Amino acid sequence: MTSPEKMGSSNPDSNKKVEFVDFKEDVSVKVSEWLLQKGYELATCTGQAISKLDKNDNKGFGILFKNPNPSKRFLGLGKERKLYLGDIWFRLHGADEKNWVFEIYGSKNVECAKQLATEMTSIFDVNISVNLEQDESKFENLPGDDVM
What we know:
The protein has 148 residues and is α+β, with helices and mostly antiparallel strands. It has one domain (28-139). The protein has helices at residues 4-10, 27-38, 110-124; strands at 40-43, 49-50, 60-69, 81-89, 99-105, 127-134, 138-139. Strands 1, 2, 3, 4, 5, 6 and 7 form a seven-stranded mixed sheet that branches. Strand 5 (99-105), helix 3 and strand 6 (127-134) form a beta-alpha-beta unit. It starts with a helix and ends in a 9-residue tail after the last strand.
């Protein structure tokens, strides 16, 4: 068997240097950072708040308004929940690299979502379809909530 040193020296490509490493940040990371700077918070696509994306969130993630809604408490008890604006999809739900889907929860949130989508189309050079998924608003899910 040949030693590693001899294997490397007999390989004509072994002395070539790598000129650069091509690194491409996923668009979901760029969008999440932009939304955080705008004052929104991130969530899973079931509405549970997250502090950062993980590898499974590159297909899409949820968007929460930053300020909790004090009226979304049961008899004044429990944690205040943030309003769940919707989900932005980069893959799945009919989305692809240049055509994203923004699913909105609550007709009261449509204008805000359309404005946000307009900004994103300009910044990220994509088309965004804004869809009202349900007329009633949704709120953040907390750990232990029964999520469908």
